[in-house]
Each structure stands twice: as C-alpha cells, then as structure tokens.
C-alpha cells in the first residue's frame, strides 16, 4: 500500500529532480544513506525497480519514469495542502528560493531581504544571482525578479517598477572620438555589448522619424551590465545601460547620456514572476506584496538608499573616471 509510503514517494521524486541521492539529501536535510533506504523501501513495496544505479549516475527505468509522473503530482498536492495550512496559520515558513539578476540583486536585495526577514524570522531565503534566464520549475525556484519586456506566458508576473535605458559614454571617450549624433554613426564607434539579450550586436531605437536599427561592432562583450558600465566609465567605448546601473555615474559626470532624441528601446519593466499554480504559497505572496510596496513610488525613489548601502558593502571601490 502506497498510502503508508508518502515519505518514500517524496524522497524518490526529489532524487529524480536532483539526479542524485546526495543532491536529494541536501534538499531534504537528510543523510544520503537515509535517502537511499527510502527509495529501496519504496521499490520493495512496489515490487519493481524504479532506478538504475551505477557508480557514476542514476537513470529511471521505464517503470520509474511512469511512476515519477504520478509521484510528482502527489507531492505537489501535498505541498499545496501544506501551503494552505500555513496560510491559515498566517505565518510563512520554509525556504523561499529567489532568482534575480546579478547587479540588481547586489544593489537592492540585501536591504530588501534583510528587512523582509526581520518581519518573517521563520523563513529561510535562498537567493541565486545570475544574469541568465533560469528555468524556475526545472531548477526549483519559487519566484524570480526579471528585468525585461516580459513575454513568457507560462509565468505569472506582477510588475514592480519601470526601468529606463540610456546610451552612455565617458567624457574622455567623447573628447577623443567625438559624439555620435545619430544611431547610424554608432557603426563607426567603439561599443560595449551586453550579451544576455537575443541580439547583442543589434541596437534598436525609436527616433523622431521612426524606428532605427543599427548593427554595432563591439570592442568588448560581457554578460553583466555593471561590468560594461565600468568599462564605459574608463573610456573603452559606448554602452547601453539600465538607468539603475549608471544613475550615479551620470549624476557625478563620469558618464554622459548621448543620442537623447532616440529611445534606445532597452526600456522595460521589473517584474516578480512565478510559475503558474493553483495555490500560490504564502511565502511567495507576502514577499511579492512586500516588493510592490517598497517600489510603489518607482525605482528612483528607492534607488538612493539602496545604492548607498551597496557602495558601503563594496568599500566604495569605484573606478576613477
């Protein structure tokens, strides 16, 4: 009877999702041997092998693959029931796994998460910072913060704030190479490309006479916006940057906005996104509500204090212009 082996089903599902006994053990807070015993007991109760084990890897048997599909649904229902009971108790608990862009996360999340955890001390927050797009479901995240023109219809999104992009360069660069007056002139300039977009070398603009598309020839490419902004401050070339990354450098004159008559079309929104599900866990709901409230006045209103804390944490290690 499986009804007495729900723990085994939960452990088995986690082993499949983590592709290892050790990975499942870490996620479940159990020893590797305990995980192995749960799976063996489950196989014995079913009278069939679910996993092929070798010294190097695990793989599902045909029966294991079929059983996992049902197991995953059962585990999801159990988790949904637990989340519903947590909501009734009114106190979010457990682990909240969040994915966020690297620079945005470094600048804003320490202050936000610290304040949030003071409100909900029973929560453990696990934050993953990376500039690439993660698969929330496959990688086990509860939610993500994304800075984009949101298109993924498989996700539920709640807008936190707008963000604006600028084309920027250092005064020293403009003095040496001149300032482009139209996007077309960028083809003859040194540019710095951010690579976590579909076409890093294609820069689109909306100008006074309509849309303009330019193919640039970057002298440097990077998958992190702060890195390209620092390179721009040092005079390496022209960059397209979100305002929240370059606002301080612009206000201090270390960078200058150029092509002001052309919208660089790297504007968009900052969103909290989460997988579609019947019951949103209270830990996700309260954190998103918290973010919405914090960004209610717009990103700029929150920016100054967050930047100050970010600089303090980095020891004010900023490049000289």
UniProtKB/TrEMBL annotation:
Q: Which InterPro entries match?
A: LysR-type_TF_proteobact-type, LysR_HTH_N, LysR_subst-bd, WH-like_DNA-bd_sf, WH_DNA-bd_sf
Q: Where are the transmembrane segments?
A: none
Which keywords does the record carry? DNA-binding, Transcription, Transcription regulation
Entry GO MF terms: DNA-binding transcription factor activity; sequence-specific DNA binding
Pfam families listed in its UniProt record: HTH_1, LysR_substrate
- Give the GO biological process terms: DNA-templated transcription
Q: Which residues form a coiled coil?
A: none
Q: What is this protein called?
A: LysR family transcriptional regulator
Q: What is the lineage of its organism?
A: Bacteria, Pseudomonadati, Pseudomonadota, Alphaproteobacteria, Rhodospirillales
């Amino acid at each position: 009877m499986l009804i007495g082996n729900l723990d085994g089903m939960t452990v088995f599902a986690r082993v499949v999702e983590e592709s290892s006994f050790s990975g499942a053990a870490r996620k479940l807070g159990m020893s590797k041997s305990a995980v192995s015993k749960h799976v063996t007991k489950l196989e014995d109760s079913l009278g069939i092998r679910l996993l092929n084990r070798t010294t190097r890897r695990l793989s599902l048997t045909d029966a294991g693959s079929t059983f996992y599909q049902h197991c995953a649904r059962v585990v999801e229902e159990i988790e949904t029931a637990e989340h519903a009971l947590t909501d009734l108790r009114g106190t979010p608990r457990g682990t909240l796994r969040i994915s966020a862009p690297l620079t945005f996360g470094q600048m804003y999340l320490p202050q936000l998460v610290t304040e949030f955890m003071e409100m909900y001390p029973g929560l453990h927050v696990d934050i993953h910072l990376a500039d690439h797009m993660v698969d929330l479901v496959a990688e086990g995240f509860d939610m993500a913060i994304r800075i984009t023109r949101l298109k993924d219809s498989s996700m539920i999104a709640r807008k936190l704030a707008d963000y604006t992009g600028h084309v920027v360069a250092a005064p020293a660069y403009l003095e040496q190479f001149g300032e482009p007056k139209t996007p077309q002139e960028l083809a003859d300039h040194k540019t710095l490309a951010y690579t976590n977009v579909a076409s890093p070398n294609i820069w689109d603009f909306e100008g006074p006479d309509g849309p303009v598309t330019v193919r640039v020839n970057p002298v440097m490419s990077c998958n992190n916006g702060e890195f390209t902004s620092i390179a721009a401050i040092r005079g390496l070339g022209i960059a397209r940057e979100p305002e929240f990354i370059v606002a301080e450098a612009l206000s201090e004159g270390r960078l200058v906005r150029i092509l002001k008559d052309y919208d660089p079309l790297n504007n968009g929104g900052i969103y909290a996104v989460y997988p579609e599900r019947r019951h949103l866990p209270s830990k996700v709901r309260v954190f998103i509500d918290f973010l919405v409230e914090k960004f209610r006045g717009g990103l700029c209103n929150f920016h100054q204090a967050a930047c100050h804390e970010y600089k303090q944490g980095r020891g004010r290690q900023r490049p000289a212009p």
